[in-house]
Design goal:
Shape: globular
Strand content: 5-15%
Number of helices: 10
Order of helices and strands: EEEEEEHHHHHHHHHH
Strand order of the largest sheet: 2-1-3-6-5-4
Largest sheet: 6 strands, antiparallel
Helix content: 25-40%
């Protein structure tokens, strides 16, 4: 199989493009121009060969010129048979010190046992998920009000990092979500619900009062369903969709559209956010805040729509 590393982003200094990684090697040296502070790394494979799935815990990157070390956590499988069928994932960078880098590198060289992963997705209560969303929105607002040049790496983390906006919304929409696909025996996938909403609103007539929001939603989902995005799993598609909604300042209207859909009434039980009116109003208020500020979204987060 062919492993590759795609679009290592770093501020406004560009990316490395696609780099083929040699088979069977755990330590690889790549030459690239100065990328500055690393923000994200896209990694995947072409799904060829016998048992092509790849269990990836993390990737360590060391800049040999300045000694900066970056950790990209994955903790899952790149496999068609994985939870969301992804063979390509976007990993968010986290600066670590030299001691932590050495410890992680040494542990990888010593431990060659097959990886065992436990799903990192936590379906929290709607109250906890709401608190997580409020923190994420407040962090984005503070960042935009006190932004400094070259702070794009922080923005990537605030959107897609472990405590970012995307995980908060994924946790929020996962709470109370009933199993949608009979083939998915694990945690229901939010993208499956999004797809049901897409099928529903695609048939709405042009006289609908919220037609502009519907059109933008349908356009973005269609972009993510193109064959060129087939290597990215359902969680990755959801992540990209949220980033597009933030960039275009329509996330609040999309969320309202979802809340009014027949899919919401069918796919969620009474613990879901769409069945709790007072909490839904608070969530809508939080997302409305994001429509009042311009948040530039790094191209590495929405590259699927630009292929």
């Amino acid at each position: 199989k062919q492993w590759y590393q795609r679009r290592v982003r770093a501020g406004e200094k560009g990316d490395t493009g696609v780099s083929a990684l040699p088979k069977g090697e755990s330590i690889v040296s790549l030459m690239a121009r100065n990328l500055g502070e690393l923000r994200s790394l896209r990694v995947g494979h072409d799904n060829t060969g016998i048992s092509p799935g790849w269990g990836l815990d993390h990737i360590l990157v060391e800049n040999v010129l300045n000694g900066h070390c970056t950790l990209f956590r994955c903790g899952g499988w790149l496999s068609r048979s994985s939870r969301d069928g992804s063979i390509e994932r976007l990993l968010i960078g986290e600066r670590i010190d030299r001691n932590e880098y050495r410890n992680l590198r040494n542990s990888c060289q010593k431990d060659r046992s097959p990886p065992r992963f436990v799903s990192t997705l936590q379906v929290d209560s709607t109250v906890k998920a709401q608190e997580m969303l409020a923190t994420a929105v407040n962090s984005l607002v503070r960042h935009r009000h006190h932004r400094t040049q070259g702070s794009g790496g922080t923005l990537v983390t605030l959107l897609c990092g472990p405590q970012g906006l995307v995980p908060a919304l994924q946790s929020l929409l996962s709470a109370g979500l009933r199993p949608i696909s009979r083939f998915n025996r694990g945690v229901p996938l939010v993208w499956e619900f999004v797809h049901k909403v897409y099928l529903e609103v695609s048939e709405v007539n042009t006289c609908h009062p919220d037609q502009p929001a519907i059109q933008s939603f349908v356009k973005c989902v269609r972009l993510l369903m193109r064959p060129s995005s087939s290597s990215v799993g359902m969680d990755g598609k959801f992540q990209t969709l949220i980033c597009l909604g933030v960039r275009d300042r329509v996330l609040h209207r999309w969320f309202y559209m979802m809340s009014q859909s027949l899919a919401a009434s069918k796919c969620y039980d009474n613990t879901g956010i769409f069945k709790q009116d007072s909490m839904l109003d608070e969530i809508m208020g939080l997302l409305k805040i994001l429509e009042d500020i311009k948040i530039p979204v790094d191209v590495s987060l929405i590259h699927q729509t630009e292929r």
